[in-house]
Every structure is written in structure tokens, then in C-alpha cells.
Amino acid sequence: RNLFFRNDEWEQITFIEKALRSKRAFWSYIKGTEFAVVKHFIPFGHLSYFLRYYFCRNNFSCHFLTNLSIHLMNVILIYLIALTLGIDPYTVLFITLLFALNPIISDTVFWTIMSLNTLVTMFILLSIITHPAITHNSIINSTIFIISLIAAALTMEFGLLAACLAFSIFIIYGRLDFYAVIISSLPIAIYFIGRRLIIGSFGLSNTQKTPLIKLTKTFSNVINGTVKLLLSYALGIFKLKATDTLYILKPDLTRVQTIVA
Fold it and tell me: Which of 28, 47, 221, 255 could form a disulfide with 34 if both were Cys (CB 3.0 to 4.6 A apart)?
């Protein structure tokens, strides 16, 4: 039986296989203490990886459909947010279409390990659509808003931007008060305090003093993806490419055969 994953995923699979056999290894993996050098405090993210592999195992279609479902949820949220902001319906449709087609260029949906990107995007979008300054401030909306902010921060370091974005929206809509400051600071406090208590440091490693060091690369990827998308429209190039390289990992994870697609 072969596992069809790309290079960055086999390490995760190794830890998950251990977590499936031992409760101690499971909690170490979820907390991020299992990793030797770079330690990520993203318990929601690691739990997402674990559940994905637990239910899908070697079934690539299962991984793909799960990613696609999350992405479709994000497309719907983009559409609703744009309508809430009062944007012209035709412009809303164009914006939604651009967002929906982006994974065709960037492999976001086809590459299973990219699920954290789609998942954290969903939490960020949920925090926007339920933001007290934008929508009706009900108990349900406020609860989803707070949970989304915390979930985004604990799913991926990039998710900390959700708190910054929430704070900015409070300022833009003139709703900056004590409540806004506390709510916007809560996910950041939970992330860094939790990281310090569980892992023992604020940075990813000795050479990275803060997890936010990855933001430069993230923004670079966003810009590159946007440029490729616009060029594809301008040149009429629309090639569906699932992956650049396919890695076939043997069951014992000791041999890796690379096939160039």
C-alpha cells in the first residue's frame, strides 16, 4: 500500500503514526513538543492533521474533497462578506470567482498539507462576517466571533493576523473601546501564554525569535499567486495542475520515489 503525499507531509505522517499508537505521543504531537527543532504551538492545526489522516489515511480523494469543502465554505463567506459591505452584485460575483479559482493556480486545494491555509482562512473570514462592528451584535455572532479569533491563532501562526484585522475593523468603524481592545488582544494572549507554558519559549527556534517572522514569506506567496492568476487570465492560460511533484512513500516510510509530473 502506498501513500500519495508531497515531501512536506511525510514528516507529519511519521508523528501521526506514533500518535495513533500512544496517548503520550498524541498529546506531544498536539502540543507541538514532539518536534525537535522548530516547534509550532498550533494545537488546532495539529488536531486537524491528525483527524484528517485518521479518517482519510491513504485515500487522496478523501483529502482532496475535505480541502475542497473547506475552500467552498470560504468562497461562500467571501460572497457574504462582500454583500454585507454593500459592494455591487456584479463586482461581488467577480471577486468571488477570483477567489474560487485561485487554488487552480496555487495548488491550495490539491496539496493536502495546505489544509491549514484553507482552514485558517475560514476562521479569519468567520471572524469578519460575525464582527460586532459589521453585523448585528447578537450573542451567537459574538460567540462565533471570539471562537473564530482564538481558533485562527491556534490553527496557524498566520492566524494571529485575525486579531490584528479585528482590531483594525473596530478602529475603521469607530467602535474602539475597552471591549474591542480586550477581545482583539485575547487570541494573541492565549497563543503566546499557551506557547510559553507548554513549549517554554515564544519563538519557533533559536534563530527565530517570533513566529511572526513567517509573515514576509506569506505575503510574498500571496503576491506571487495573485500575479500568476492575473497573467493566466491575460494570456488565456488555464491548465489544471494538481502538483509539480508526486512523492510515493512506502509503508515503512524509508524509501521515497520522486516522479516528475
Answer: 28
